[in-house]
Specification:
Blueprint lengths: L2 E6 L11 H22 L3 H5 L2 E4 L8 E6 L7 E10 L4 E9 L5 H18 L2 E3 L5 E3 L5
Antiparallel strand pairs: 1-5, 1-6, 2-3, 3-4, 4-5, 6-7
């Protein structure tokens, strides 16, 4: 059974809409800063921090992509997508991280890391896999 975590973009977020390319750029930025951290520590931290390649399918049409693990024994797949939900008057955009049936515990840990990083960068509302909510935006 698949599980999902969401980063919801709320009115207090830095931006209320995100494209799939902006999301990829955020993940590539995460990879670059962890690479620099590894260089400072003289440790190959980049492969441990971001052990995935970004794979895009044609049928995704700018809505999703997946992260494919470099070592399939430890990390397999995380699906990453964007969407929007419409309530009475408003439209709220979100980022969704989905674990497939063949995802590992390593995938879940990395997906949690990526969710927390993106939620903190965008000042969003994070709904974790276990149902808990973390608020990264300033409250009034």
């Amino acid at each position: 059974m698949s599980q999902s975590a969401y980063v919801k973009l709320v009115p207090a977020s830095i931006q209320q809409v995100i494209t799939i390319d902006e999301l990829k750029d955020l993940l590539l930025y995460y990879r670059s800063i962890t690479t620099k951290t590894g260089e400072q520590l003289s440790w190959e931290y980049a492969e441990a921090a971001f052990p995935y390649t970004i794979e895009v399918k044609e049928e995704a049409k700018g809505k999703w992509f997946y992260l494919k693990g470099l070592d399939q024994r430890k990390n397999r797949y995380i699906l990453v997508g964007i969407g929007k939900e419409v309530d009475t008057d408003n439209e709220h955009h979100y980022i969704q991280f989905t674990l497939t049936d063949i995802s590992t515990h390593g995938d879940k840990g990395k997906a949690n890391e990526f969710c927390k990083f993106i939620a903190s960068k965008l000042k969003g509302e994070l709904h974790l896999f276990n149902g808990r909510v973390m608020y990264y935006y300033p409250k009034k």
